[in-house]
Design brief:
alpha/beta; Rossmann fold; 3-stranded parallel sheet; 30% helix; 14% strand
């Protein structure tokens, strides 16, 4: 869940067509609207939406595409990997970060 990433020091940029604020953060309508560099695109949408999200991730220069638990897409994988993005599917970021005690490093 996004809150788990926030608690570990990661900045999130929610993308949602219907909300204005989520998790205490301003919501954007698309990845292209985010005014800062995006490292990881964490997908909480149906698998059918994943290829378009992968294209958007490539378009904004993201470094990785992560599809949450129970989300799989061969097409999204092909798009991401062809562009050099790291790709993970069917995994929960909150579980993985807690399991491996991953926290964002402090800026130097």
């Amino acid at each position: 869940m996004p809150e788990g990433l926030q608690r570990r020091g990661f900045r999130i940029f929610p993308i949602n067509p219907f909300a204005d604020v989520l998790f205490g953060e301003k919501v954007y309508r698309s990845l292209a609207e985010v005014p800062e560099k995006i490292d990881l695109v964490d997908v909480f949408r149906p698998a059918a939406d994943a290829p378009e999200i992968a294209r958007q991730a490539v378009g904004v220069g993201a470094k990785a595409l992560w599809l949450q638990l129970d989300i799989r897409s061969g097409e999204a994988r092909n798009i991401a990997e062809a562009a050099g993005l790291d790709y993970v599917e069917d995994e929960c970021t909150a579980v993985v970060t807690a399991l491996y005690r991953i926290k964002k490093e402090a800026a130097l």
